[in-house]
Design goal:
Radius of gyration: 19 Å
Strand order of the largest sheet: 2-3-1-4-10-5-6
Shape: globular
Number of helices: 12
Distance between the termini: 47 Å
Order of helices and strands: HHHHHHEHEEHHEEHEEEEHEH
Strand content: 15-25%
């Protein structure tokens, strides 16, 4: 049992209805895929909560391990990783994240994961949306999960791809993702990387073939997306941190040529890393389409009304990018 599964008893005590909502599916042979489909249906029917899927996945993993059942399908199938697109419509890919910081707040939701469930299979501005939810675990990123999932979707051609995570007090379009990890915060398995602002680290695998750039720039149409200001403003965020100059707003990618990344505009954690990895992969594959990262406002615990507004604004921001 890892640190994620070890939280199950606390979740069952604090959130019994949430943590048991999908228990009827756990004995099914195709439980992982059915969990994903049920969560998508649930959210799109108005039950705006990403947490039942997270806790059910952990429960399924724990039970299969106890029984000697198959574990290899649990993660990908219950995260939407089998996403395919119809051939008759433009394709949009959206990714979110699991809840995190659960030792601080076991009731924590993640609006980005909720947005992924709410948008999956829908049509926005004539484009078909597929979504997936990523784990908040360094080992998965180190093992190439991001590239393995994204590469075939990128090669097949997309009209737009937006990676989403929970962030600050507004919506941020993260213009300049940075190469290195620097936040001294554990992942969902309570793993620390040893990285810090004083000693930012290149994630394993990213520098293995050739020296990657310290910063990259997104290709999202920032102006129309930033114009979607409703409850929250939407900022084209250019603020980064480097070893040489500290924290500053970069004018351009060329302005960052001689800087060593400490934090990209998306920070120094996995939000920034999914942004950087996706842009680097696109560059290495030689494919072109608008791509970048969006931070939602943060929420403490779970707030249905607030997260509904966030999801609605994410939908309109994506629409603005397509129109």
């Amino acid at each position: 049992m890892d640190a994620e599964e070890a939280r199950l008893e606390r979740a069952l005590a604090a959130l019994p209805a949430v943590a048991t909502r999908y228990d009827d599916l756990l004995d099914e042979p195709d439980a992982p895929a059915r969990l994903w489909r049920r969560a998508v249906t649930d959210v799109q029917a108005g039950h705006l909560d990403d947490r039942p899927l997270y806790w059910a996945r952990l429960k399924l993993r724990r039970e299969r391990r106890r029984r000697g059942g198959r574990l290899d399908t649990v993660e990908p199938a219950s995260r939407g990783f089998s996403a395919t697109f119809p051939s008759d419509k433009p394709a949009v890919l959206v990714t979110g994240f699991d809840p995190f910081r659960l030792d601080d707040e076991i009731r924590q939701s993640n609006p980005s994961g909720l947005a992924a469930l709410a948008l999956n299979g829908t049509t926005i501005a004539g484009a078909h949306v597929r979504a997936a939810i990523l784990p908040v675990r360094f080992a998965d990123f180190d093992g190439g999960l991001v590239e393995a999932f994204l590469a075939p979707r990128f090669r097949n051609g997309l009209a737009l791809a937006v990676t989403v995570s929970m962030g600050r007090d507004r919506f941020d379009l993260e213009r300049f993702p940075g190469l290195r990890r620097s936040v001294e915060m554990p992942d969902n398995r309570n793993v620390y990387t040893g990285a810090s602002a004083a000693e930012p680290q290149v994630p394993p695998g990213l520098g293995s073939t050739s020296a990657p750039p310290e910063f990259l720039e997104f290709s999202l149409p920032a102006a129309p997306m930033a114009a979607v200001e409703e409850r929250w403003p939407v900022r084209d965020n250019r603020v980064v941190r480097s070893l040489e100059r500290g924290t500053f707003a970069a004018e351009s990618l060329a302005d960052l040529t001689n800087d060593t990344a400490v934090q990209g505009s998306g920070g120094g954690y996995l939000s920034n890393e999914i942004a950087y990895r996706s842009l680097l992969l696109q560059q290495r594959l030689g494919v072109r389409f608008p791509l970048g990262h969006l931070h939602t406002p943060s929420v403490r615990g779970h707030d249905l009304a607030l997260e509904q507004e966030m999801v609605d604004q994410v939908r309109r921001i994506i629409k603005a990018a397509l129109c």
